[in-house]
Amino acid sequence: MYLKYTYVHKIRILVSGLQALLKHKDIWRAEDIAEIAAYQRRTNLPTGFTALDHLLYGNGWPRDGLVEILPEVHGCGELQLLIPGLCRLMGEETRWISWVNPPFVPYAPALNAHDIDVNRVFLVHPKNHREALWATEKILESGSCSAMLVWLDEQQLEEKQLRRIQTRAKEGRAWITIFRPMHAQVKSSPAELRLSLRLAEAHIKDQVKLSILKRKGGWPVPNLSLQLHEYRVLSANTRIAAQWQQWRQQHSPAGAKH
Amino acid sequence: MLWLCVHLSLMGLEIVQHTQDLAKRKPAVLVADHKVYRMNEAAQEAGILLGSSVATATSLVPELLHYRRDCEAEHKYLEKLVPIAYCFTPRVALSSPYDLMLEVSGSLKLFEGLNNIVQHLKQALAKVGHTAQIGIAHTPAVARVFAHAHSAIAFSDYPEETTIRSDSLEHLHTLSLKYSELKTTDVECMFNMGIRFFGELLDLPRSELRQRFSSDVLRYLSRLTGELAEPQQYVAPATQFTSVIHLLEPLFDKPSLRKPMEQLVIEMVHWLQSKQLGVVEATWQFTATNAQTITISCRFAYPRIDPQAILEFSELSLSERELPQEVLSLRLEATQVASLAKAGALAKDLLGAYEIRPVLPEDLLDRLTARLGSDSWELLCSHDDHRPEFAWSPVSDHSTRLKKSHHPSTEIAANSRPLWLFARPLSVKPKDFEILQGPVRIEDGWWEDRVQRDYFVGRHESGALCWLFNDECGWFQHGYFA
């Protein structure tokens, strides 16, 4: 009788422990996905690329959470991928967009041309990794930014720091994108969405290959083709350019030095 | 006329308590001429009497804290309280040693009644650590008597001039002459004659009094009744704010600096409020025992008047700096102020709610400035210029940006300019690139920085889309189409 009681008691403890664990906000269950997704379908942020939208949890970028983008090189369309989403977010909200530690200058006329309000953009230039983390956390805490684009020092970046950023992003209701180099894909990350961007093979150059390394409510998806730029190699154009180049080199005195 | 006398009887001791927490809990007395001049509640409970010698008091309470009265410092301190009173009326006068006189008949409507004024005034003074006794009457002299006697009459919110006068005089009749401002010898003489109350003195015929007392007594009586005006010298808040706290004992760490800093900030906020200004730059100075001084300035993105934020950003700036070993005095100066109207939002009312809710994240920018320095962030600003490097500029001042910024009139196609621009063009070899589009000639600025370039869109060997140009110095990369 006594034995039976302890057994039942133990089970009860186990079950209550499990219940508590399941209530933890970092844990999601496959069965919850449908209802949460149904709720978030209204609220998530469309990426502007229909093919990508269909693959993402809640049909778009998370409005509060951490996204990682791993571009192969600079200039493979890593910003272009975010522009439609940022644009939409700026239209919906009055909050700002911050760029922490950008590698180059975000060019204001180009942002303007993409309908991004540069008056609500600010850049943070931290002097070291510690300052960058501090600034990121404070910006998220303040709740005054709806989106953040962050470049961190990969060598000093630790998983627990990302976890902290992810939690703060939920609290501050901000969509934060961290750009990491390609080799970071082997490291584990608490981000709810991880994408890698690769340039396509030589013959389809105006497309990028986007791979989903990690997403909520689904398996990774490799090699999704996206057209981010509209620069086609026009044969006539190339010829003109080549001629121009030649002419320039022949006629300019400085060009002769090359 | 409606006069308020704010009597801060314990001010001398309260000044000490600002910097010495101990003086609040332990019995403490203020000493003038080796006699107990003022004391706190704990000392009163211990049975110490006013006017007794320090030796007697110490024999009653061995751990008694005693501080010497500093009349000059007290007077200076009273002047610091003027901005608080000035928020209620422009007619503020000082009356030594511990009295502020306010004429409030013109402010009744603004504050919705006399009782509101009294209540707000008491609250504002309590915030800076003072308990005030307030006397209200038709003349300054009577108001002072009421405040000193700690006996106030209840007036209606909008009292009539005649009611104030009759009620005040009626109440004055019942008060003892020891609260009067007559010479002690005169008062003693009156007591001996059996004249103990104001009423008894006022009822006596003046001509008979003149024969027995000096003309000062008669003049005082006429001032009480209002027959003789008592001219006041009104004071206004200083045109600039600087305030210093000299600590009695040096402080060693930053957390314990918080309290005196808070006191200075609150003082500054009262001054700002009375001037309808907000602070844009505040400068702190911390001086050590060896006269080493550290100066810290805090800049704010918009004129601020909320004490919490000013204190928080000051502390953030402080957290990044080394302090001298022993801080002995603190100084706060409002180095740059601006009208509150410029902030785009006005305080809700003159009291209480002086918080301005910013729509924009200036709070955040101030926090970043305080901790990481003013060069740690920048805002973008685009200009009408064909030269790519002049078509944008970083701005680190929010207000100037608002003025400058505009949407460029020249529309450019979304994909003709790169999202990443290099701060300085990078010299490249043209053979590494495949030209996709171009050339586009940009030629401008012959009067300053001449630019004469042909721009191309090119693909680097790695596959990255680049913005290239060719000028007389060769080929350069100017950005990435990211």
Apparent shape of chain B: elongated
Q: Rg of chain B from C-alpha positions?
A: 34 Å
**Elements of chain A, N to C (H/E):** HHHEHEEHEHEHEEEEH
Q: Which whole number gives the mean pLDDT of chain B?
A: 83
Taking strands numbered 1, 2, ... along the chain, how are they ordered across the largest sheet of chain A? 4-2-5-6-1-7-8-9
The number of distinct β-strands of chain B equals: 18
Instruction: Report helical residue fraction of chain A.
Output: 25-40%
Q: Do you know the CATH topology of chain A? A: Rossmann fold
Q: Tell me the major beta sheet of chain A.
A: 8 strands, mixed
The CATH C-level name of the largest domain in chain B is Alpha Beta
- Distance linking N and C termini of chain B: 74 Å
Strand content of chain A: 15-25%
- Kindly give the count of domains of chain A: 1
Instruction: Please state the average pLDDT score of chain A.
Output: 79
